[in-house]
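Because discrete structure vocabularies remain unfamiliar, we turn briefly to a single example record, giving the amino acid sequence and backbone structure tokens:
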Amino acid sequence: MARNQQPWATRTARDRSDAPARGRLLDAAETVFARRGYSATTIADITAEAEVSRAGFYVYFASKEEIFRVLAVRVRDAFLAAQDVPGVDRDDVREVVGASTAAFIAAYARHLPLLRLLEQQAQTDDDVRAVWQETQERPIHRSARYIRRLAAEGRADPVADPLAVARAVGGMSIQFARLTASDPRGYDAAVRDVTAMFLHLLGVGPDR
């Protein structure tokens, strides 16, 4: 393996493809890992769930460990994508905050079972640990940069240091996402309440 190459990057060309079989395998793996846990899951379980042959599995992934690490990266990217808020007026702070909060809570609730497994595997797998730390920290630091920019432009007056506000909002979002995972009917209320608290912490008035 090349120096500094990630263990799950051995099939770079195929990983970048949109092959339907690869997507089915990843979706199936997330479902099975969530259902059975990491240790009990086998490649046969994943291929059966995906309706893909065992040989088809090895076209895209070398092992159970590799597909789990690819899933870890996919989850990390889902949280980063939640902050991109496409189609939203980026000059409208309230709209940006509402859309990004909604996307984050939805992503966290959707991936909650896998996130729990990622946290467990991070204790013993250095590669998973690195992705887990990025999943936790990168969205917070991106949010802090956004808050700093708003403050510099005079469009927000945060009640505390931007990084502290970002961490507080991240923690609230996670707690409400867990509630949403338990009862999806509470999703809209969760988004509304976290958005309101985020805006309050930003010090955003009605005209901002």
Summary: The radius of gyration is 19 Å.
